[in-house]
């Protein structure tokens, strides 16, 4: 993985969230819809895969790949879709979405139904680790997605996913630890967790959760010839996360800039691969 190249690409995308590009071919573009446990995000890339725009909203309508508030999820996706359509002067009619490792078929249908009920025809459902690999530019290694609800582990070999596992330890558990430590409600704890000014303070509180995540990964990759671990997902955004994983696993740990954006961008990139 060329980390500098990946980071540059992510930074270009990050800029489009507040300042979307309007000078692109509006006859062909790719849309990704990511229904995450902590956030719902829509990403738009041009026909060459360059970032055009992104829109996101914190949510609790999906839990570990399972839609727990169907109407709420539709409402958020539709709202983000309409915001982007207005900003860009386009009509979004089709796109791509993704599922975490190990999700049952019934949950896949529910995710597709949410996106399509919001007015976006789903062309393809990709698995999240494969989507992440598109952005990272890798064909081998372990993609560890530290999401809002789960730790997802996917082993890639020659560009194909050969093993997946998913365990319920994620960013939500970090938030609960913070809520307990400070005696605050969940939403306040979430604000504390995402406050960059309090990152060092928060890291001390959530280190045990990150250590547990690393131990989960260690358990599943034993028996595989693994040299490189790629961290993605919002729960690994803390600056000490790589160090904790490196100490626990003794392997090469790679983490791109703003890992929260990796999978959502990769979902849209699936359009180029389709």
TrEMBL record:
A Gene Ontology molecular function term for this protein is: ATP-dependent protein folding chaperone
Q: Which Pfam families match?
A: HSP70 (PF00012)
The alphabetical list of record keywords is: ATP-binding, Nucleotide-binding
* PROSITE patterns the UniProt entry points to: HSP70_2
Please name the Gene3D superfamilies in this protein's record: 3.30.420.40
Q: Which residues form the SHS2 domain?
A: 30-136
Q: Which domain of life is it from?
A: Bacteria
A biological process term (GO) from this entry: cell division
Family the UniProt entry places it in: Belongs to the heat shock protein 70 family.
User: What PANTHER family does the annotation carry?
Assistant: CELL DIVISION PROTEIN FTSA-RELATED, ETHANOLAMINE UTILIZATION PROTEIN EUTJ
* Listed NCBIfam families: EutJ, PRK15080.1
- Its recorded name reads Ethanolamine utilization protein EutJ
Q: Which organism is it from?
A: Fusobacterium pseudoperiodonticum
């Amino acid at each position: 993985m060329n980390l500098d190249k990946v980071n540059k690409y992510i930074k270009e995308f990050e800029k489009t969230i507040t300042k979307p590009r309007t000078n692109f071919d509006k006859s062909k573009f790719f849309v990704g819809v990511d229904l995450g446990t902590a956030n719902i995000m829509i990403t738009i890339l041009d026909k060459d895969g360059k970032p055009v725009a992104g829109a996101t909203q914190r949510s609790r309508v999906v839990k570990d790949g399972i839609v727990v508030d169907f109407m709420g999820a539709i409402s958020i996706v539709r709202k983000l879709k309409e915001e982007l359509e207005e900003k860009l002067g386009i009509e979004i009619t089709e796109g791509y979405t993704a599922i975490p490792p190990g999700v049952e078929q019934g949950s896949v249908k529910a995710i597709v139904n949410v996106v399509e009920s919001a007015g976006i025809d789903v062309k393809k459902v990709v698995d999240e680790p494969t989507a992440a690999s598109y952005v990272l530019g890798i064909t081998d290694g372990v993609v560890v997605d530290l999401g809002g609800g789960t730790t997802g582990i996917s082993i890639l070999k020659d560009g194909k996913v050969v093993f997946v596992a998913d365990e319920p330890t994620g960013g939500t558990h970090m938030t609960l630890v913070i809520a307990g430590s400070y005696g605050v409600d969940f939403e306040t704890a979430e604000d504390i967790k995402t406050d960059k000014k309090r990152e060092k303070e928060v890291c001390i509180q959530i280190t045990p959760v990150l250590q547990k995540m690393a131990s989960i990964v260690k358990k599943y990759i034993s028996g595989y010839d693994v040299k490189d671990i790629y961290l993605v997902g919002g729960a690994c955004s803390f600056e000490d996360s790589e160090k904790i994983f490196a100490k626990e696993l003794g392997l090469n740990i790679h983490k791109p800039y703003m890992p929260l954006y990796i999978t959502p961008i990769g979902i849209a990139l699936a359009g180029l691969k389709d």
